[in-house]
């Protein structure tokens, strides 16, 4: 078994490393939210290579490690998230107050929260129905609620809105998820195929 125990750098921050990655026969692994925070774990590279990772740092998308001189490229497995889109809300004082109430409710639940522009992202920490029941009373008219897959790094402190496709805000759109539209007292649902089920799995 190869062991990756040296940090080389990050291809999104160092163009020379990106060029090196293109020119070398590197291993590629995708790590989940739990693995990327562990100091050691065992995994299988995309080509089937048995690989151990022993590193005293949290992994990020684009990291390069060295395993006996061979590069190992890190990707992050996306996580399912609730997306609260406030783009259709009138920017008046009551809407701002409601948004603050939403933040307070999320904080009371100790849920992670990331904000990009007019969208708030919450990783699925519970079944959808319970999360919706907690969030929806605080949403002003014009808000839509849907679901997406995003990089777990989106919820790292200071990372929202930054990074590469995987490091900042990689999204998977189209077939998965459903939207709720809030406005004029109505509550509509639009469901798509491939929807993440209530337990958070696809």
Automatic annotation (TrEMBL):
- Tell me the leader sequence span: none
| Ranges for region Disordered | 135-202
Protein name per the record = Urease accessory protein
Cite the UreE urease accessory N-terminal domain residue spans from the record. 11-72
State the species of origin.
Halomicrobium zhouii
Question: Where are the compositionally biased (Basic and acidic residues) regions?
Answer: 159-187
One Pfam annotation, family name? UreE_N
């Amino acid at each position: 078994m190869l062991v990756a125990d040296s940090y080389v750098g990050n291809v999104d921050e160092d163009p020379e490393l990106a060029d090196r990655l293109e020119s070398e026969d590197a291993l590629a692994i995708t790590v989940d939210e739990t693995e990327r925070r562990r100091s050691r774990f065992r995994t299988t590279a995309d080509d089937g290579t048995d690989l151990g990772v022993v590193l005293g740092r949290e992994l990020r998308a684009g990291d390069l490690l060295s395993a006996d001189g061979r590069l190992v490229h890190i990707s992050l497995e996306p996580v399912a998230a609730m997306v609260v889109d406030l783009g259709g809300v009138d920017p008046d004082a009551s809407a701002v107050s409601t948004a603050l109430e939403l933040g307070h409710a999320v904080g009371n639940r100790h849920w992670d929260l990331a904000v990009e522009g007019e969208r708030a992202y919450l990783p699925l920490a519970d079944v959808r129905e319970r999360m919706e029941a907690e969030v929806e009373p605080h949403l002003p008219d014009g808000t839509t609620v849907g679901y997406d897959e995003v990089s777990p790094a989106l919820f790292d402190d200071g990372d929202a809105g930054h990074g590469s496709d995987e490091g900042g805000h990689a999204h998977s759109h189209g077939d998965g998820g459903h939207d709720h539209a809030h406005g004029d007292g109505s509550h509509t649902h639009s469901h798509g195929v491939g929807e993440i089920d209530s337990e958070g799995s696809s």
